[in-house]
């Protein structure tokens, strides 16, 4: 009988300690989760020659965007460009210049409460993608279907940072999308777990964290995200839960070799989540979202050739040989 009481006491003590731990840690993780890094984003100004777009969403938001090469005859395809946090739709030319010069139509749209799009009362976007942004993507695709010159073109998506995450999730949800380029993209849970593993000592002693099983850490992170969702009145999107419907052959991931936010290790984790046929290029010396600025020619060649391949266009022979020479670099990063 004594052992029964001792066992019950131990169980109650463990549960009480666990509850106390969660009450202490969960709101602090939520605070860290919602803290936006100091991104140095320089938005672009309006450019002549582009058609201005106004796109309403199903829940009443009004999005602003632009269409480049919209009247181009014999266009190869339509590329939907999704900008980074604090960026705007005019940044499309910064990342898609090679596509514009090679007969692609580029449609770029600002998410709600960002750039030139109208603000949504009570919602301030951060670096994590929510269902609000995916509702915006749905509105963009409906707009495309309403335009005869656009709906008949093959559809590709290019996104940067959280826009890259939205591009990947869109490809999971909409089979019409034939190819994706995601620059500095990440998985919400995998990226959060990566940084928690490294900075948990700021919340609890390192020896305590090492004793916690992986399932307990994951559960705590999910509770922290749920708390954040409640506080911000939103629902976060997790690529990790939807990637099974994504064709890994259609995805090119790009990340900077000196990116301190979406590190090469995080990019490699995302590659493994998407699948073995997903391509990953680490731009040497590039910081966050700066891969094209640092490696312009290589960036343009890779993006252009990837989308050409997705469309069934024969890729440049010199590019294929060059890519094979660099392939071992990507594999070595993935294996670490």
Structural write-up:
The protein has helices at 2-34, 92-101, 131-146, 148-151, 162-173, 188-199, 206-211, 214-232, 264-274, 291-294, 296-310, 317-335, and strands at residues 51-56, 62-68, 78-82, 105-109, 155-160, 177-183, 251-256, 279-283. Mean pLDDT is 87; it is low at 326-336. Helix 9 (264-274) packs across helix 12 (317-335). The protein is 48% helix and 14% strand. It is an alpha/beta fold. An eight-stranded mixed beta sheet has the order 1-2-4-3-5-6-7-8, with helices on both faces. It has two domains: 2-35 and 192-232, no CATH class; 51-187 and 238-335, Rossmann fold (3-Layer(aba) Sandwich), CATH 3.40.50.
Features:
8 strands, 2 domains, 12 helices, disordered C terminus, 8-stranded mixed β-sheet, elongated, 14% strand, alpha/beta, Rossmann fold, 336 residues, 48% helix
Structural class by sheet pairing and helices:
alpha/beta
Strand percent estimate: 5-15%
CATH architecture of the largest domain: 3-Layer(aba) Sandwich
Counting DSSP E segments of at least 2 residues, the number of strands comes to 8
Please work out how many helical segments DSSP would assign. 12
Radius of gyration: 22 Å
CATH superfamily of the largest domain: Alpha/Beta hydrolase fold, catalytic domain
SSE string, helices as H and strands as E = HEEEHEHHEHEHHHEHEHHH
What is the number of independent domains? 2
CATH class of the largest domain: Alpha Beta
Would you tell me which CATH topology of the largest domain applies? Rossmann fold
Uncertain parts: 326-336
């Amino acid at each position: 009988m004594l052992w029964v009481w001792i066992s019950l006491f131990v169980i109650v003590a463990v549960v009480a300690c666990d509850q106390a731990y969660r009450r202490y840690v969960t709101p602090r993780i939520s605070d860290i989760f919602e803290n936006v890094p100091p991104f140095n984003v320089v938005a672009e100004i309006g450019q002549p020659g582009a058609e201005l777009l106004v796109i309403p969403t199903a829940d009443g938001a009004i999005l602003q965007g632009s269409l480049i090469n919209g009247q181009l005859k014999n266009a190869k395809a339509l590329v939907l460009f999704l900008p980074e946090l604090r960026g705007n739709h005019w940044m499309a030319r910064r990342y898609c210049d090679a596509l514009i010069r090679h007969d692609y139509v580029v449609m770029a749209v600002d998410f709600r409460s960002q750039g030139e799009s109208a603000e949504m009362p009570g919602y301030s976007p951060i670096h994590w993608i929510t269902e609000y942004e995916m509702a915006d993507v749905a509105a963009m695709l409906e707009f495309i279907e309403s335009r005869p010159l656009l709906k008949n073109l093959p559809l590709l998506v290019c996104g940067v940072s959280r826009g890259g995450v939205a591009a990947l999730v869109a490809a999971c949800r909409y089979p019409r999308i034939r190819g994706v380029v995601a620059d500095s993209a990440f998985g919400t849970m995998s990226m959060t777990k990566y940084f928690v593993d490294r900075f948990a000592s700021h919340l609890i002693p390192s020896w305590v964290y090492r004793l916690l099983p992986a399932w307990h850490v994951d559960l705590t992170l999910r509770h922290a995200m749920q708390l954040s969702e409640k506080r911000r009145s939103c629902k976060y999107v997790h690529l990790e839960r939807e990637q099974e419907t994504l064709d890994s052959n259609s995805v090119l991931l790009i990340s900077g070799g000196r990116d301190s936010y979406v590190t090469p290790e995080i990019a490699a984790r995302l590659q493994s989540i998407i699948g073995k046929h997903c391509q990953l290029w680490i731009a040497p010396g590039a910081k966050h979202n700066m891969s094209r600025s640092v490696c312009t020619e290589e960036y343009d060649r890779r993006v252009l050739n990837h989308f050409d391949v997705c469309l069934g266009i024969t890729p440049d022979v010199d590019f294929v040989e060059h890519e094979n020479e660099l392939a071992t670099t990507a594999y070595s990063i993935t294996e670490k």
